[in-house]
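Lab notebook, bench 4. Still working through the backlog of constructs that have no structural model yet. Next entry is a single chain of 208 residues. Request: give me the structure tokens for it.
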Amino acid sequence: MSPEISSTGGPLLPPFGDRRRRRIGLLGGSFNPAHDGHLHISRAALHALGLDQVWWLVSPQNPLKTRSEMAPLADRLTGARALARDHAITVADVETRLGSVRTAQVLRALKKRYPRLAFVWLMGADNLAQLPRWWHWTSIFHTARVAVLDRSPYSYKALYGAAAIRFRRAKISPGKLFHRALPAWSYLAIRRHPASATSIRAAARGEV
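Model written out:
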């Protein structure tokens, strides 16, 4: 692994970990582009789960998305960093540094590097619905806690989908998420935000 996993202004934490026990939310995605909706769900997770930080992991390429409309990684990182001015939100290129876009691999690497941190993977309900398509998806629940954020109209389908059924006994209220051994996951019923990367790209093309 690279000696440093970079963020907005240097390494996320000192090499080989940090002695402080902190709760870190991980929000992965293309951020194509980053928008106010990302800020909304990050702040909601910070509050509901008592997190110390949220790390935005800007992916070089989502395996389930095409490259046709994907802006260059450098541009997406710059846009995310310009938006994430909250001291509790850090933008990082973890996947690029690790050479992997597989969430399961990234989580294992972060857990090994920062053994004293408690990680929770943040995802929208739409991602929970398609989670069984992800590489080694079940290992995600055994490596980090998972928090699923409401994203209508996907929530109902997701909460009765294959992933939710597979780990139904591991579902717990948000306030107890860090007090239970893995696997453990929670659903956060947050206010919906209208921002959409798809709509932003369409507007940029003059389609709306």
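Notes after review: The chain has nine helices and six strands. The mean pLDDT is 85. Flag for follow-up if needed.
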